[in-house]
Amino acid sequence: MIEIKNVTKVYPNGFTALKNVNLTIQDGEFVSIIGLSGAGKSTLIRCINRMHEITEGQILIPNPVIYEMTPEQREQYDAVQADPSLAEADPSLKRLLNIPSKVDISKLKGKKLRQARKNIGMIFQSFNLVKRSTVYKNVLAGRVGYHNTFETMFGIYTKEEKMLALRNMEKLGILDKAYVRADQLSGGQQQRVALARALTQESHLILADEPVASLDPVTTISVMDDFTRINKTGITILANMHHVDLAKRYSTRIIGIRAGEVVYDGPASEVTDEVTMKIYGRALNKNENLGIEEGGVAQ
Amino acid sequence: MKLTFGIGAIALLVAAIAMAIYEYLRYRQAKHYPDAESAYHNRPLTWLTDLFFFLALIAAFVFLHFDLNMNDEFSVSGNPKQGFYNLGLLFQPDWEFFFGYGQYQFSESVIWFIIKTFGISYIGTIIASILAIPFGLLASHKLFGNVAWPFEIILIAIRTVPELIFALILIRFTGFSYVSGILVIGIHSIGMIGKLYADQVDGIQQEPVEGVLSCGAGRWQQIHLAVMPQVLPNFISVALYRFDINVRTATILGVVLGSEGGIGYYLSTVASHYHKLGSCVLGIVILVVVINVVSSWLRKKLV
Amino acid sequence: MSSDSEATEKPSLKERLRYRTVTVDLSPNQDGSMVRSIQKPRHLGRYLSALIAIVILVLCFFSIDYSTFQGFKWDQLGAIFHDMFNPLPASLKTWDAYWSYMWGEAIRAIWTTNEMCFIGVILGAVISIPIYYLCASNINHNRILRGIFRVINDVLRTIPQMVMALILRLFFGPTLVTGIASIIIFTLGIMYQLMYQYIETLELSPFEAIRSNGGNTMQCIRLSVHPEVQPMFFANLLYTFEINIRASVILGYVGAGGYGFLLKTNFGSGYYDKIGAMMIPLFVEVIILQIISNAMGRKSR
User: Fold this and answer.
1) Which of C63, C65, C172 sits opposite B77 (nearest CB)?
2) What pLDDT sits at residue C117?
3) B49 and B171 together in one domain
């Protein structure tokens, strides 16, 4: 669960990108953020894993320390958090009780911040792959948070990690391209590589910054289908979208942003023309949609 | 022993290159893998190639260590303690020698030799930057197509001969005189300036050239009306940049050309008088730094 | 009209230095119906700089001792090349000796120089790797640290190689160690200048991606920037090697051995044929290196 509390972001040039944003994102949701260009969608996404600093407020994320625990520890921790009286009976659990279940990512530093980022995958509009490296290496780069600097320098990964990377590629249908240089792939394939990288990271939240904005409609659909499949495995997805119909069809919840303020927050099914009017300032024309219908792309 | 490492280095290098080529050919295109397991077993062995390269490098270094008798070289190379003492002497320059008073005349002072060095590089650069204009234009593939090849080769050939060898050859022609210095700088920098000029000409905007062409201009009219106005500021910038380098080159010419070649003469004659050497080094550093600062300032203003 | 009121205003001195007011008749048949005053730039700065350049040129001629120049020895011009590429009776005597000198001592001297350059360039380049990442403004955002390394770079590149070799000779004496050390420093200066300027032109979006995966700066560099700059690194390595081969002629004059030392001895005794025999292999090597490094540099850009 991610809680965004009273977040305000002012850029150094004085532009206010986010104004007092309050959101709570539950585990397993597929949330789309829609709004005009420059409304603050990207800023919001990037503030969550702190690629941007926020000016005011808090972004509470699950404490990364919890994810570093062994399964037994985790079990004990959950039990103690649920029932604090257990700690009185067993003093050794007192330490676990004191570990907060949530931390404010905007206060984290250095190693703690990197641990937090490790648990948040991110996908970019321009894929951000290392063009001269192979697809395999690009996907394995998702494991970077699990290794120290020395191991990364010499490219040391365990067999399980390599298999995980390859299995993720298989899942997304890019296994055949595994050892090809990333710049030889088409746009949709490159975005799948980025997706595989985020999956290999084994995070519980994936942030997608306009993941399909530079793809053609057909590829968009298949990439969005991939997102849905990933979402079904229990990973929370928070995506920026340009197309309202795409957001309505794939996501469970839609957040509308206008000039840095949340103007709509509710289920995707309830997005009506009135709502888009509030978000975009006017009703959308039919030709402004991507033009998807059930079962494929309309001609 | 020595030979083993030499042959080993070559063998490892060949193995590494063979590996690299094999892997390249094997993974150049997408291949079908039925499942992740088989893809895992067919992954490229990049680490092995890297290891071969690394080992080849190590073997080569061991070979070179023995081939150059580095043990002996290290044993006769002076002790660092003495080195630091001598370095200290460099920082106490002989001011009489530097400014040319007391037991030295001004005409044998470091300052005067620095001025000479500057003069040689300045005159040489001006000559070179003017002579390089026709070479630069003719070596441009964009303007002259295949006609540019012989000129480009001439420019490469000029660049290839080290300055000192050039000086050694020219001494027979012009004697131990300032003319040799000017010619060395002048001719040698045509090679580099000409190449940079040609790069500039190749990088011009095509539209003005087409505009002039559509008015019925000939090739040389094109150059005069459309090419030169575009590239002239860049040409001056290139010449200034080269002047910066030529000043550094000119400081060593005296080693070969004697007292008329500038400060290099002292570098070779007073190398064991550390106070005097210190004043020479000071003079050179001042000259080079001043020219560097002035030339980069002017270049910034031009752009 | 507004142009009249502007014309009556007296321009400032700075304006007058920059522009000159010219009255022209713009009417088609020059009947004086469309007389306008326009401002023409004077380009005083250009003329002034040209004047300064010429004055410096003239002053330079005063620094010359004209008595040393005894005219061009035109007869020598052909003789030099004849002497260089023919065995002389004073030294090599026969063609056999010429070729065997070329294949023997000349090649050996070049080989030694190559070995020195190889060691120096590899070590210098390896040392330069961390430094060029520290110098690139898009990777290292610490302005002070970056400034320190850039100043060191400027100092390294400013000092002529011969001066550097002379200073190093104080420590290591007239040995190969001096030569190799000065090549290392020379390489370091060139390499990290070229590389950090190249890195600054790169787009660093993959860097951001790896950072969002939870990598620290070193890991981000290793995984995202390093693969992108690797080809350029090798192209620059070869380029630096070629420069060093040419520049190491000087090292012989400092006593650091190699090609230059043999050249100095031959020149001292006037053996021009030996100089010629030494030049040919060097020429061939440098041309080959230039062509390869040109091709590599062009390809990896």
Assistant:
1) C172
2) 92
3) no
Taking 3-state DSSP, the helix, strand and coil percentages for chain B, each rounded to the nearest 5, stand at 85, 0, 15
pLDDT value at residue A54: 85
For residue B83, is it within any domain?
no
In chain A, the residue whose alpha carbon lies closest to the alpha carbon of C220 is A144
Contact yes or no for B189/B246 (Cβ under 8 A): yes
In this complex, which of A162, A167, A177 lies closest to B30 when CB atoms are compared?
A177
Q: What is the pLDDT of residues C111-138, one digit of tens each?
A: 889 999 999 999 999 999 999 999 888 8
- The verdict on B266 and B204 lying in the same domain is yes
Among C219, C237, C217, C229, CA closest to C300 = C229
Give the residue numbers spanning the domain of B177. Answer: 95-302
Is residue B88, in this structure, part of any structural domain at all? Answer: no
Domains identified in chain B, total number: 2
User: How many interface pairs between A and C have CB atoms less than 8 angstroms apart?
Assistant: 81
Residue A298 pLDDT > 50, yes or no?
no
Let me know whether B53 and B133 are in one domain. Answer: no
Q: Is there a single domain that holds both residue B107 and residue B152? A: yes
Please, what are the domains in chain C? Answer: 2-62 (no CATH), 92-300 (1.10.3720.10)
The answer to whether B260 faces chain C, any CB pair under 8 Å, is yes
Q: Do B107 and B235 share a domain, yes or no? A: yes
As a whole number of angstroms, the distance between CA B212 and CA B231 comes to 16
**Alpha-carbon distances of A226 from A221, A288, C264, rounded to whole Å:** 9, 24, 72
Residue B90 placed within a domain? no
Chain B residues lying within 8 Å of C70, measured CB to CB: 175, 177
Which of the four pLDDT bands, split at 50, 70 and 90, describes residue C1? very low
Task: Report the neighbours of B using a cutoff of 3 or more CB pairs below 8 angstroms.
Answer: A, C
Within this chain, do residues B196 and B297 fall inside the same structural domain, yes or no?
Answer: yes
Q: For C212, name the nearest residue in chain A, comparing CA atoms only.
A: A117
Q: Which residue of C has its CA nearest to B122?
A: C57
Q: Are residues B129 and B208 in the same domain?
A: yes
* Mean pLDDT confidence for A34-38: 84
Mean pLDDT of chain C: 83
pLDDT at B17 (0 to 100): 93
Residue B54 belongs to some domain of the structure = yes
**For testing the chain B interface, which of A169, A179, A192, A199 should be mutated: the one with the most B CBs within 10 Å?**
A179
Amino acid at A226: D
Read off φ and ψ for residue C39, nearest 5 degrees: -100, 125
Candidate from C209, C222, C227 with C-beta closest to A153 = C222
User: Which of B42, B76, B110 is at the close of a domain?
Assistant: B76
Put simply, the answer to whether C218 touches A153 (Cβ < 8 Å) is: yes
- Residues of A within an 8 Å Cβ radius of C: 49, 51, 114-122, 124, 126, 128-133, 137, 141-142, 144-145, 147, 149, 152-153, 194, 197, 201
Say what the ipTM of the complex is: 0.83
Q: Does B162 touch chain C (CB under 8 A)?
A: yes
Residues 6+ apart with CB under 8 A from A8: A16, A18, A19, A20, A21, A54, A55, A56, A57
Task: Report how far residue B263's alpha carbon sits from residue B252's, in angstroms, rounded to the nearest whole number.
Answer: 7
Q: Does C298 touch chain B (CB under 8 A)?
A: no
Mean pLDDT, range C262-283, rounded to an integer:
86
Give how far Cα C88 sits from Cα of A236, B156, C82, C91, Å.
Answer: 86, 29, 9, 6
CA distance A130 to chain B (A): 17
Asked whether residue B22 falls in the same domain as residue B138, the answer is no
Closest approach of B13 to chain A, Cα-based (Å): 20
Identify any residues that bridge with A4 across adjacent strands, giving them in sequence order.
A23, A59
User: Which residues from chain C sit within 8 angstroms of residue A152, using beta carbons?
Assistant: 215, 218-219, 222-223
